[in-house]
């Protein structure tokens, strides 16, 4: 009978207006950035404090109703889509920067704070928040916590797990636990390190302590324009082999360049360009000067057509804005796109790109490549038209083949977008039965009933959710 | 690693588990044995020093996989051929095996320049009593597939499984390492440390160290390009290659060797407060390392607790630090899967 | 309706004032696009919640400016609003109904010089102690306007800005047409005169065709494009007979509408090509003047200014730097405010039709104004009125003004502009 009252109980906690049940209010929540599966939540709740989150979780756990937290819904693997009739806790209103603790080099935030707003807030003090996913203008820090988000600059600075020193989390029973500390050192088992990147399947973070990074004294952004993809990827390996770890080392191929040049931030790349490398070196100014010089030399020894150095911060910002809107800009050259996210050992870059090109040919689809070349994190963008169901099937198959290539070359099925709904079956490619059991034990340790964000990450979890048969039609 | 050797390690360990269970002992896996914590239960010690094979090394990928008993110095000698290394320098100058460094949660002084050692751990191969041989993490520098289970093996001293192989991210070896040292009054050294951070950043290590009866010592170490070192020499004086960390010779002769961390705000305060312990603080990260008598260590643990810091015993008695009951529940459930009979303590 | 380019990336969310305020996916551009798609497939899904979400769109275009795939959310919502009357009243939100009630009086007041004179008179009378409250209670004056009216300038000229005889300058120069607008022509007539003076200082001849009309933006946003279309034709004709090659506009909202005139006409319609020529000639006054060689004045760094970026300037036209350039050149010190390009809630007549949301956004805007500034510069009459309606509560605090008023004042104090005493300027 409890089942009947949970909605009323939720309304008592957060107020009537903050519990959505109207089907048209729920409809926009049936997707995140991953559009191949559509599933409408049973309800959406908008809590505004840790205590509200804990109280809401308690009510739902008692009623045995699954639930998950959602931020800006920019997940590319379906992490923020509700399966199995789960209730969404939309944390968009828990979006306050609580404290900028300059002395301890820590900023304290609520989970709904937008990633880029953190850097904007600490800039005047000479700091920045290092992980910068391409969606940073929208994605929230709670989502970054859940997905262990990366970004172009994680090549040098590391991913989210390297930058969260402490977190206040709500467990599946509605208990509040504080993990980590201001010192940012592990204290007993590194639960925090385990929970970051657990894709919202173990806890809900309600407050985060983030490490601030001193702004580098100097930086240089370099564009290298290539006539051959192969030479560009060889240049990437040569830079790393020379002992240089740039702050970022990004690559785009011709199709991707075509799309971003039509987007809001065109750079003015020549139309016949085959590949571009966007390289940033930063640090102490002498180091930067020497390193940039060395990078230039390496580029010139790899048949680069042209090397451009950013002269102003506006130019640098524009080059980055151009790169960071690449996914969305696919809308300008294709009705839909499906972004893959796989990792290969960097030395296999030319091999991997050749195999991806072969896959594109085999399935007769167009694939654009935009990726973090420095750490071998590929983002093939598979272009398709959702009105053509056969093409959709070919795209799904091609995506799966690309992951097989990544695993075969000794890599990983996801470098930063997470497993989510998308790669749940692909987990078996990378891990054996025993390895998966070891991971399932982690789930059991924190959420034995499987209420938190069901249907994600682990293939062993029961699958009885209602999913769409394919991508939603768009006219 | 050749398939055969994986299975032989796993089979061998299964027999060791059986024997330990039969003896009602707790299995204690040891690398070189100097990060040992005292135990109240009878212990079967198992030495991994022979597990020292290189499994995979691809310099262009900046990754290496080796067996867990390999010494860091052995590994670094191999990596040096490609101008690469694992920059881990522990303040007591003692050596570690790869598995030992992971299990004991060891970290070094170069965190300021290279980040924590645990961030290098990409993958582990582990043999557990409950799930047999398992593979955790991956072999590439970036991976978010599944739970980051290797993290839970860092510093938990093999309580969930025996680490047989470790995959690490390696770093390029810098063209030059250079150091400077100052001694004297604490407040003057703190000012100097602050100035050093303004002058250049990040330092490989910026340490303030204290030994009872000696003067406070500030040491700055830069890893990078010759041009930078030339500039620093102009500003700071000649300096030298590998100037000593401590004023006086061997200092770790006390009961407890500890590590930990504290918020940056409390760093100066700790150096003013410390009396009978040998202590070193990395000024960019707030990481500490040191040695003290048992009672002094206890006092230090309490002080750090009060200042939002962390205290952890590297070797010596278990000082029994309490865990949150919710976390104990999670730990117990995890233990049930990995080591249901408690063979690993 | 083509919403096909939306790939659901979500990058638009934090740029959307209604999402920022409510935190609801349905109140975000991505949510609205999704709802529009579904309504297109199945119009019977329309209910009160959907109408509210769609109708809350401010049409501020912030999402369009950041969208990697250029999804025209604002236009799509506008299109949907235009279709709504045909669906009948059951889908109407109170806000849309509110606009329909206003549409006829607006057409009268804004549609001809006679109407505009009445609007100016009423605005002036509304400031009289006894008459004021009575005026703001007239049947066609929406209730929230009683509050908004506090935001208009204290001295409103007695005649339209277009009735000014401009001295002819020596030499033959290409004339520029100043688009005088409606609210600008009446309530902010002084700003129009200041713009003319600055244009003259910059060495151009200004023409003011009496036949020009209101741009029709308000009707367009409210879903009544027929009115906009007929006024557009009059404006195009006025331009074609004026002999000017450039149309200078000092109101961001008008500028955006004028720049989108061609879309009002079918490709086959001969008016389409004429509108295209018209569009191409439109330039914002701050852009035009920043490209002229106005003299650089010494810093008067004691006067601090903060700039509010009107949506239809920053997002719709991509103009951000030019007002700042002009202010700096005129010697002012700038102090930026947070979220300077987030909508203030004015949004045409949104503040009349959606008073609650408009108030929340205004609260947010006001909270970001730095304490030390003397003025908040905003190059759009709607924003000026909206922001000033709150700022007037603190007589010692900053006021909201058009950046060109500030620039004009600096040049006048520097002795470079001499207000023409013979002109029909009522000061």
Reconstruct the topology from this structure.
The complex is a heterotrimer of chains A (475), B (345) and C (427).
Chain A: H1 2-14, E1 19-20, H2 23-26, E2 43-45, H3 50-62, E3 67-70, E4 87-90, E5 97-101, E6 106-109, H4 115-122, E7 127-128, H5 141-147, H6 154-157, E8 164-170, E9 176-180, H7 191-195, E10 204-211, E11 213-214, E12 218-226, H8 229-241, E13 248-253, H9 254-262, E14 275-283, H10 285-300, E15 304-309, H11 313-324, H12 326-329, E16 336-339, E17 342-343, H13 349-363, E18 366-371, E19 377-378, E20 380-384, H14 389-408, H15 427-430, H16 433-446
Parallel strand pairs in A: 2-4, 3-4
Antiparallel strand pairs in A: 1-2, 5-6, 6-10, 7-11, 8-9, 8-10, 12-14, 12-15, 13-14, 13-18, 16-20, 17-19, 18-20
Helix pairs in contact in A: 1-3, 13-14
Chain B: H1 3-22, E1 26-30, E2 43-47, E3 54-58, E4 63-67, H2 72-80, E5 84-85, H3 98-103, H4 111-114, E6 121-128, E7 132-137, H5 150-153, E8 162-169, E9 171-172, E10 176-184, H6 186-199, E11 205-210, E12 216-224, H7 226-236, E13 256-261, H8 267-273, E14 278-282, E15 287-292, H9 294-306, E16 310-315, H10 325-338
Chain C: H1 17-22, H2 29-41, H3 48-55, H4 62-66, H5 73-87, H6 94-111, H7 113-125, H8 131-135, H9 145-148, E1 175-179, H10 183-186, H11 189-201, E2 205-207, H12 217-221, H13 225-242, E3 246-249, H14 252-258, H15 270-281, E4 282-284, H16 285-291, E5 304-307, H17 311-317, H18 321-329, E6 333-334, H19 350-353, H20 355-368, E7 375-377, H21 381-391, E8 399-401, H22 403-413
Parallel strand pairs in C: 1-2, 1-3, 3-4, 5-6, 5-7, 7-8
Description:
Helix content of chain A is 34%, strand content 20%. Chain A has helices at 2-14, 23-26, 50-62, 115-122, 141-147, 154-157, 191-195, 229-241, 254-262, 285-300, 313-324, 326-329, 349-363, 389-408, 427-430, 433-446; strands at residues 19-20, 43-45, 67-70, 87-90, 97-101, 106-109, 127-128, 164-170, 176-180, 204-211, 213-214, 218-226, 248-253, 275-283, 304-309, 336-339, 342-343, 366-371, 377-378, 380-384. In chain A, the strands form 5 sheets. Chain A has a 7-stranded antiparallel β-sheet, with helices on both faces. In chain A, helix 1 packs antiparallel against helix 3 and helix 13 runs antiparallel to helix 14. Chain A is globular, with a radius of gyration of 22 Å. Chain A starts with a helix and ends in a 29-residue tail after the last helix. Chain B has 345 residues and is of the alpha+beta class. Chain B has 2 domains: 3-172, Uridine Diphospho-n-acetylenolpyruvylglucosamine Reductase, domain 3; 176-315, Vanillyl-alcohol Oxidase, Chain A, domain 3 (3-Layer(aba) Sandwich), CATH 3.40.462. Chain B is built from 10 helices and 16 strands. Chain B has helices spanning 3-22, 72-80, 98-103, 111-114, 150-153, 186-199, 226-236, 267-273, 294-306, 325-338; strands at 26-30, 43-47, 54-58, 63-67, 84-85, 121-128, 132-137, 162-169, 171-172, 176-184, 205-210, 216-224, 256-261, 278-282, 287-292, 310-315. Chain B has a 7-stranded antiparallel β-sheet. In chain B, strands 3-4-8-6-7 form a 5-stranded antiparallel β-sheet. In chain B, strands 1-2 form a two-stranded parallel ribbon. The longest helix of chain B has 20 residues, at 3-22. Chain B is globular. Chain B starts with a helix and ends in a 7-residue tail after the last helix. Chain C is α/β, with parallel strands linked by helices and 427 residues long. Chain C is 49% helix and 6% strand. In chain C, strand 7 (375-377), helix 21 (381-391) and strand 8 (399-401) form a beta-alpha-beta unit. In chain C, helix 13 (225-242) packs across helix 15 (270-281). Classes of the chains: A alpha+beta (475), B alpha+beta (345), C alpha/beta (427). The interface between A and B is large, with 87 and 76 residues.
């Amino acid at each position: 009978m409890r089942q009947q009252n949970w909605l009323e109980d939720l309304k008592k906690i957060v107020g009537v207006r903050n519990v959505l049940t109207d089907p048209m209010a729920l409809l926009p929540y049936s997707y995140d950035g991953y559009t191949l599966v559509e599933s409408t939540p049973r309800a959406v709740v908008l809590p505004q404090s840790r205590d509200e989150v804990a109280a809401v979780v308690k009510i739902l756990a008692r009623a045995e109703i699954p639930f998950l937290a959602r931020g800006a819904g920019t997940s590319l693997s379906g992490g923020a889509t509700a399966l199995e009739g789960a209730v969404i806790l939309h944390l968009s209103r828990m979006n306050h920067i609580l404290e900028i603790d300059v002395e301890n080099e820590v900023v304290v935030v609520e989970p709904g704070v937008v990633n880029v707003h953190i850097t904007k807030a600490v800039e005047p003090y000479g700091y920045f928040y290092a992980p910068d996913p391409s969606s940073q203008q929208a994605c929230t820090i709670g989502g970054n916590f859940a997905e262990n988000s990366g970004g172009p600059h994680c090549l040098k600075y590391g991913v989210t797990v390297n930058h969260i020193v402490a977190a206040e989390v709500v467990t599946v029973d509605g208990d509040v636990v504080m993990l980590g500390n201001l010192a940012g050192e592990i204290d007993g088992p590194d639960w925090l390190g385990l929970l970051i990147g657990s894709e919202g399947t173990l806890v809900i973070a309600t407050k985060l302590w983030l490490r601030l990074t001193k702004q580098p004294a100097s930086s240089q952004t370099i564009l290298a324009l290539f006539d051959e993809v192969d030479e560009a990827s060889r240049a990437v390996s040569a830079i790393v082999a020379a002992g240089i770890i740039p702050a970022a080392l990004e690559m785009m191929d011709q199709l991707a360049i075509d799309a971003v040049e039509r987007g809001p931030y065109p750079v003015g790349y020549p139309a016949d360009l085959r590949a571009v490398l966007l390289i940033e070196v930063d640090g102490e100014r002498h180091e930067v000067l020497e390193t940039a010089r060395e990078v230039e030399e390496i580029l010139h020894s790899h048949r680069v057509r042209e090397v451009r150095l950013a002269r102003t911060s506006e130019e640098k910002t524009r080059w980055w804005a151009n790169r960071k809107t690449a996914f969305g800009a696919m809308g300008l050259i294709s009705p839909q796109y499906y972004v893959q996210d796989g990792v290969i050992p960097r030395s296999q870059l030319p091999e991997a790109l050749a195999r991806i090109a072969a896959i594109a040919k085999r399935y007769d689809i167009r694939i654009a490549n935009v990726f973090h070349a420095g750490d071998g994190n590929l983002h093939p963008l598979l272009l398709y038209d959702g009105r053509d169901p056969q093409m959709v099937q070919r795209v799904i198959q091609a995506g799966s083949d690309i992951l097989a290539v990544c695993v075969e070359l000794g890599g990983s099925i996801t470098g930063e977008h997470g497993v989510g709904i998308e790669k749940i079956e692909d987990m078996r490619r990378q891990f054996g039965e025993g390895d998966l059991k070891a991971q399932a034990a982690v789930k059991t340790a924190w959420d034995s009933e499987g209420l938190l964000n069901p249907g994600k990450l682990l293939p062993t979890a029961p699958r009885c959710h209602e999913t769409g048969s394919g991508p939603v039609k768009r006219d | 690693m050749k398939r055969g050797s994986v299975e032989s390690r796993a089979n061998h360990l299964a027999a060791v588990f059986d024997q330990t269970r039969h003896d009602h002992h707790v299995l204690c896996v040891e690398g070189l044995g100097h990060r040992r914590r005292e135990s109240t239960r009878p212990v079967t010690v198992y030495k991994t020093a022979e597990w020292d094979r290189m499994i995979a090394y691809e310099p262009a990928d900046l990754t290496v996989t080796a067996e867990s008993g390999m010494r860091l110095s052995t590994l670094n000698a191999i990596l040096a051929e490609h101008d690469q290394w694992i920059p881990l320098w522990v303040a007591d100058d003692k050596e570690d095996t790869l598995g030992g460094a992971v299990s004991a949660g060891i970290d070094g002084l170069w965190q300021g320049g290279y980040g924590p050692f645990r961030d290098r751990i990409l993958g582990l191969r582990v043999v557990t009593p409950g799930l047999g041989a398992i593979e955790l993490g991956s072999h590439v520098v970036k991976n978010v597939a599944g739970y980051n289970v290797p993290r839970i093996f860092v510093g938990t001293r093999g309580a969930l499984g025996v680490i047989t192989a470790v995959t690490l991210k390696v770093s390029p070896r810098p063209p030059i390492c250079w150091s400077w040292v100052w001694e004297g009054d604490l407040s003057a050294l703190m000012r100097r440390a602050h100035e050093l951070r303004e002058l250049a950043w990040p330092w490989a290590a910026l340490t303030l160290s204290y030994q009872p009866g000696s003067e406070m010592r500030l040491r700055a170490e830069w890893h990078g390009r010759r041009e930078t070192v030339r500039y620093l020499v102009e500003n700071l004086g000649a300096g030298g290659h590998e100037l000593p960390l401590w004023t006086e010779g061997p200092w770790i002769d006390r009961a407890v060797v500890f590590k930990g961390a504290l918020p940056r705000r409390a760093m100066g305060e700790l150096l003013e407060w410390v009396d009978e312990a040998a202590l070193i603080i990395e000024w960019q990260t707030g990481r500490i390392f040191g040695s003290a008598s048992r009672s002094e260590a206890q006092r230090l643990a309490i002080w750090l607790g009060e200042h939002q810091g962390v205290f952890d015993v590297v070797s010596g008695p278990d000082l029994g630090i309490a865990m949150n009951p919710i976390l104990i529940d999670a730990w117990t459930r995890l233990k049930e899967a990995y080591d249901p009979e408690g063979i690993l303590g | 309706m083509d919403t096909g380019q939306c790939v659901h990336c979500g990058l638009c969310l934090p740029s959307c004032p209604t999402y920022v305020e409510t935190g609801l996916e349905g109140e975000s551009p991505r949510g609205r696009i999704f709802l529009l798609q579904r309504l297109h497939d199945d119009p019977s899904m329309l209910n009160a919640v959907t109408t509210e979400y769609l109708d809350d769109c401010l049409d501020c275009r912030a999402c369009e400016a950041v969208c990697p795939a250029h999804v025209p959310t604002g236009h799509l919502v506008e299109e949907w609003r235009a279709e709504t009357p045909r669906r009948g009243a059951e889908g109407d939100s109170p806000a849309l109904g509110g606009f329909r009630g206003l549409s006829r009086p607006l057409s009268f007041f804004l549609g001809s010089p006679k109407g505009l004179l009445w609007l100016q008179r009423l605005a002036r009378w509304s400031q009289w102690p006894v008459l004021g409250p009575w005026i703001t209670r007239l049947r066609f004056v929406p209730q929230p306007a009683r509050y908004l009216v506090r935001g208009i300038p204290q001295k409103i000229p007695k005649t339209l800005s277009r009735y000014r005889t401009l001295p002819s300058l020596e030499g033959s120069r290409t004339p520029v047409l100043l688009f005088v607008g409606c609210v600008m022509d009446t309530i902010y007539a002084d700003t129009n005169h200041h713009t003319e003076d600055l244009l003259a200082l910059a060495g151009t001849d200004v023409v003011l065709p009496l036949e020009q009309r209101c741009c029709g933006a308000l009707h367009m946003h409210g879903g009544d494009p027929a009115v906009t279309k007929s006024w557009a034709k009059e404006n195009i004709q006025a331009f074609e007979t004026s002999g000017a090659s450039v149309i200078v506009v000092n109101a961001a909202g008008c500028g955006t509408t004028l720049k989108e005139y061609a879309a009002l006409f079918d490709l086959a319609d001969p008016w389409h090509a004429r509108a295209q020529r018209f569009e191409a000639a439109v330039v914002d006054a701050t852009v035009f003047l920043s490209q002229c060689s106005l003299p650089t004045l010494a810093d008067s760094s004691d006067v601090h200014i903060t700039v509010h970026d009107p949506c239809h300037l920053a997002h719709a036209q991509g103009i951000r730097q030019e007002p700042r350039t002009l202010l700096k050149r005129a010697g002012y010190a700038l102090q930026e405010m947070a979220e300077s390009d987030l909508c203030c809630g004015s949004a045409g007549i949104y503040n009349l039709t959606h008073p609650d949301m408009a108030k929340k956004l205004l609260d947010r805007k006001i909270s970001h104004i730095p304490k030390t500034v003397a003025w908040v510069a905003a190059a759009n009459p709607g924003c000026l009125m909206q922001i000033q309606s709150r700022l007037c509560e603190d007589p010692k605090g900053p006021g909201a003004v058009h950046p060109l008023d500030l620039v004009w004042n600096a040049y006048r104090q520097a002795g470079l502009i001499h207000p023409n005493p013979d002109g029909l300027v009522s000061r």
